[in-house]
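Proteins fold reproducibly. Take a tokenised chain:

. . .
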Amino acid sequence: MITRNPGHLRTFDYRGLYRYFLTFCTNERQRIFEDHTAVDIATEQILRAAEHEQFADLAHCFMPDHLHLLVEGLSDAADCLRFIKRAKQCSGFHYSKAFGGKLWQRYGFERVLRNDEQSLAVAKYILENPVRAGLVTRPEDYPFLGSQTYPVSEILEAIGDWEAKPRTRSA
């Protein structure tokens, strides 16, 4: 399945102190993220891009054929489109060096969180993805999830659930 490009929000500049729920799909939805080395390479480069572009990693979960991220801009200069480009480009380059293949599909999905949406509830939704997919019975048992901001246990204890809103735009 190839992700098509529905485009970015035209009236939003993607800069500043916003939170984003991002999904990046692997090339041709290959099950790349079943390998610890591939996940480690991608994680290192995405976190490096987040630091460079002034974003916090609130939560991430590498499913076998896609990645879910919850990130938050840490300054007015934080630019989500630049972060997405850098994260995918750097992780793709290092993956290709190690494995000799393409990592990402060109487009992905992005969702700008509203002010009334709780970060921990969205992070919990992301970390519970492997359970909903039937990969594990408890999120704590899945090796490819985490956060650079919160302890996983704090996210999983978050009160409230997050209802998935329709995917709105492509990254």
In short: The helical segments are 36-52, 80-99, 119-127, 129-132, 152-156. The radius of gyration is 15 Å. The longest helix spans residues 80-99. Residues 19-170 form a domain with the Alpha-Beta Plaits fold (CATH 3.30.70.1290).
